[in-house]
Amino acid sequence: MRYQYDTIGERFAESKSTAAFSAADTHTLLGALDALGGVRGLDTLDLACGYGYNTRLLARGGARRTVGVDISEEMIRLAREHEAAEEPAGSIEYLVADAAGLPDLGPFDLATAVYLFNYAPDRNSLHAMFRSARANLRAGGKLLAIVPNAGAFPRVDWSPFGVRILDRVQEGDAPLLKAHFLTEPPVPFEFREWAHADLAEAAVEAGFATVGWQPSRTPPADPVRDEAYWTAYRAWPVSSLMTCTA
């Protein structure tokens, strides 16, 4: 599971640019950044940066320093490739590293983590991820994490929104969910179904002073995704926003 994105590669970028749940995640993250007053002049860290979509978002927002970290060498290769096409050369630092054992990269004012913690294979790794994030933040720094909502499968079908859960396997510290990104053809991937209480416990143990939750926000309706579509999404959203203060 840790290195599955080395195989998924550019197909993840395809899903990110087309899936409705990704559009909602971006809208949610942008709203949270706006509420903080933006990122201009801040030192920012993007954990599980993938091909750098959110990393470039932070850089374009005027961050003083932007670092993207991912465990997948292929994702970092793609991130650098996309940066060369979209951003001034060298404006972002990219690093291949495990978020459960980050080196000292900071300190940072802000860390983002979009679908990081659901890839922790066990409780020890989950807690280590939060400790690494906290260790790289200044006192008062913020962690903004997009995390999957637990408990939807098999009651809810997320297929209209770009992802399908196929099975839940009860094993280890958290159930293993087997899923597809609904690109053409679909791309298989797996992740852990951590309860929000597990994430909050790990954040507090890591030394975060506050932990809060916000529901997913959805973009304005348009001819492709009307208000009825987004109303259905908000009834059972794929994710929530977790906000932690160091």
- Low-confidence spans: pLDDT under 50, at least 5 residues? none
Q: Biggest sheet: strands side by side, in what order?
A: 3-2-1-4-5-10-9
Q: Summarize model confidence as the mean pLDDT.
A: 93
Q: Summarize the main sheet.
A: 7 strands, mixed
SSE layout and pairing:
Layout: H1 4-8, H2 10-18, H3 20-35, E1 43-47, H4 53-60, E2 65-70, H5 73-86, E3 93-96, E4 108-114, H6 123-135, E5 137-148, E6 163-169, E7 176-181, E8 187-192, H7 196-206, E9 210-215, H8 227-235, E10 239-245
Parallel strand pairs: 1-2, 1-4, 2-3, 4-5
Antiparallel strand pairs: 5-10, 6-7, 7-8, 9-10
Helix pairs in contact: 6-7
Q: How would you characterize this protein structure?
A:
With 246 residues, the protein is of the alpha/beta class. 35% of the residues lie in helices and 27% in strands. The chain has helices at 4-8, 10-18, 20-35, 53-60, 73-86, 123-135, 196-206, 227-235; strands at residues 43-47, 65-70, 93-96, 108-114, 137-148, 163-169, 176-181, 187-192, 210-215, 239-245. A seven-stranded mixed sheet has the order 3-2-1-4-5-10-9, with helices on both faces. The protein has a three-stranded antiparallel sheet with strand order 6-7-8. β4 (108-114), α6 and β5 form a beta-alpha-beta unit. α6 (123-135) crosses α7. The model has no long low-confidence stretch (mean pLDDT 93).
Structure in a nutshell:
This protein has helices spanning 4-8, 10-18, 20-35, 53-60, 73-86, 123-135, 196-206, 227-235; strands at 43-47, 65-70, 93-96, 108-114, 137-148, 163-169, 176-181, 187-192, 210-215, 239-245.
